């Protein structure tokens, strides 16, 4: 990550604009134990209280790190019922990185956020149909499979 | 724009900045070897 992804200009700009970046060695105590770190790189997204909402393990290219951070921010808002905020970042992910490996999960979460906002189940079915059309073999399409019946 | 990421090195500082700037924290555990 330090050799390829973090020196990337888009990554630098995104992180400096949207995040507070904190980097520690994998065996730093007590943090490594507190976050149960077993492999590197591990990236954890925390809220203003230091509570974890999302993590990735393994190398991510610049083209995948930014959408993963969009998704992490969305999940952080989702966890605190701020669905409108989550939808903003999901829309950003799907507009700017539609071919990202994180796009299918974003489509799924978008459907869930819209349902949570309105209590109308139609967005869940729309999410499944979008997933089926764009990512037919993806695990998130399979997870959305029951929504075809809505 | 900055030409590198401005990493914090302690949780206390990161949390204080996150609260003041209303941002999430990206915590990266790395292996220097």
Q: Report low-confidence residues of chain B grouped into runs of 5 or more.
A: none
Query: Measured on Cα atoms, how large is the radius of gyration of chain A?
Result: 16 Å
From the helix content, strand content and strand pairing of chain A, which structural class follows?
Answer: alpha+beta
Succession of helices and strands of chain B: HE
Number of strands of chain B: 1
What is the terminal separation of chain A in angstroms?
Answer: 42 Å
Averaged pLDDT of chain B, please? 93
Q: Determine the most extensive contact between two protein chains.
A: A-B, 40 and 29 residues
For the termini of chain B, the CA-CA separation is 30 Å
What's the quaternary structure here?
heterodimer
Mean of pLDDT of chain A: 97
Helix and strand sequence of chain A? HEHEEHHHHH
* Count of helix runs of chain A: 7
Report on the biggest sheet of chain B.
none
Helical content of chain A stands at: 40-55%
The main sheet of chain A orders its strands as 2-3
Largest sheet of chain A: 2 strands, antiparallel
- What shape does the CA trace of chain A take? globular
**What percent of residues of chain B are in strands?**
15-25%
Q: What is the overall silhouette of chain B?
A: globular
Set out the fold topology.
The complex is a heterodimer of chains A (150) and B (33).
Chain A: H1 9-18, E1 19-25, H2 31-34, E2 42-46, E3 52-57, H3 62-79, H4 83-96, H5 103-118, H6 122-134, H7 139-143
Antiparallel strand pairs in A: 2-3
Chain B: H1 11-21, E1 24-30
In short:
With 150 residues, chain A is α+β, with helices and mostly antiparallel strands. Helices cover 53% and strands 12% of the residues of chain A.
